[in-house]
Design goal:
By secondary structure, this protein is mainly α. It is built from 12 helices and 2 strands, in the order αααααααααααββα. Belongs to the ABC-2 integral membrane protein family.
C-alpha cells in the first residue's frame, strides 16, 4: 500500500470512529429522541390538521409535512455542535487532537454522525405521513429521506462551524437557536415563498433549506396527484424560471460542503 493510500485509509478510519461514537450516543439515549419529536408532531397533528380546514384548497397538512421533517432533524443537528463545545470543556477534544489525523477529518466525522442522527430522527416522522394525507410509498419515503439527509448535513455543518468559534456551551446553544430557528421558519415551511412580502421572500431565497423543502414538495406532488393539484405545491421560481430539483440539490450540497470546509479550517486554526 502506498503512503498516500495508507494516509487516506487512516483518515477514513478516524472519521468512521468519530461517526460511530455519535451513533452510540444516539442509540443509548432513546428518550432524548422521543422528546425531540414532541414539537414537530405537535405542529403536524395540531397546527397542520387544524389549519387544513381554514386554508383554501386541499393538502395544507401535506404542505407542512416537509417542514415538520426538517424541524424533527433540527434538534439532533444542533446537539452535535453543542457536543463539540462540551468535548472541549471536559478535555475529551484534546485527547482526540493528539491522534495523527487531520482536524478536518474529526469535524467531518462529527458532522456525518450528526447528519445520520438527524436523518434517523426525521425518518421516524415518516410513520405519520398518513396524518398529512401522504401515501405510504417506499420510493417516496426513500427520496424524502435522501433530501432530508442533505438538509440535516447542512444544519449540522452550520452547527459545527458555530461550535468551533464559540467556547461556552450556553453561548453556543443560544447562538445556534438564534441562527437555525429563523432558517427553518424562513424556508417556506408554513406558507409558500410566493405569498411572502418581498423582503421576506429575498431572505427565504438566500436560505438553503428553502430549496430542500421545495424539492421535497415536488417529490410529494410527483407521488400524489391530489397534492399536485393544490396551488400550495406550485414549484419555487427564480424570476420567471422554475429551478430543476437537481440544481436545487446541488446548491444545498455546495452550501453544506462550504460550511463543512469552513468548520474544518476554523477548527484547525483555533484548536490546533
Amino acid at each position: 500500500m502506498s503512503a498516500v493510500a495508507a494516509r487516506a485509509a487512516a483518515e477514513a478510519r478516524a472519521g468512521r470512529m468519530v461517526w460511530y461514537r455519535e451513533m452510540l450516543h444516539f442509540a443509548r439515549d432513546p428518550a432524548r429522541t422521543v422528546m425531540s419529536l414532541f414539537h414537530p408532531l405537535l405542529f403536524l397533528c395540531i397546527l397542520g390538521v387544524g389549519l387544513s380546514g381554514l386554508v383554501p384548497g386541499d393538502g395544507y397538512a401535506g404542505f407542512l409535512f416537509p417542514g415538520v421533517l426538517v424541524m424533527a432533524a433540527q434538534t439532533p443537528a444542533i446537539s452535535v455542535g453543542v457536543s463539540i463545545v462540551w468535548d472541549r470543556q471536559i478535555g475529551f477534544l484534546r485527547e482526540m487532537l493528539v491522534a495523527p489525523v487531520a482536524r478536518s477529518t474529526l469535524v467531518a466525522g462529527k458532522c456525518l454522525g450528526g447528519a445520520t442522527m438527524a436523518t434517523c430522527t426525521g425518518g421516524i416522522v415518516l410513520a405519520f405521513a398518513g396524518v398529512a394525507g401522504l401515501p405510504y410509498d417506499p420510493l417516496l419515503f426513500a427520496l424524502l429521506l435522501a433530501e432530508l439527509a442533505l438538509a440535516a448535513l447542512t444544519m449540522t455543518a452550520l452547527a459545527s462551524l458555530v461550535a468551533v468559534a464559540v467556547r461556552r456551551a450556553q453561548t453556543c446553544n443560544t447562538v445556534l437557536g438564534v441562527l437555525v430557528t429563523p432558517m427553518v421558519f424562513l424556508s417556506g415551511m408554513m406558507f409558500p415563498v410566493s405569498a411572502m412580502p418581498p423582503w421576506m421572500a429575498a431572505a427565504a431565497m438566500a436560505n438553503p433549506l428553502t430549496y430542500v423543502l421545495d424539492a421535497m414538495r415536488r417529490t410529494i406532488a410527483a407521488a400524489s396527484p391530489e397534492h399536485a393539484a393544490s396551488s400550495l405545491f406550485a414549484p419555487l421560481t427564480l424570476g420567471a424560471r422554475q429551478l430543476p430539483v437537481a440544481l436545487e440539490m446541488l446548491l444545498v450540497a455546495g452550501f453544506a460542503l462550504a460550511a463543512l470546509a469552513a468548520a474544518g479550517a476554523c477548527f484547525s486554526r483555533r484548536d490546533g
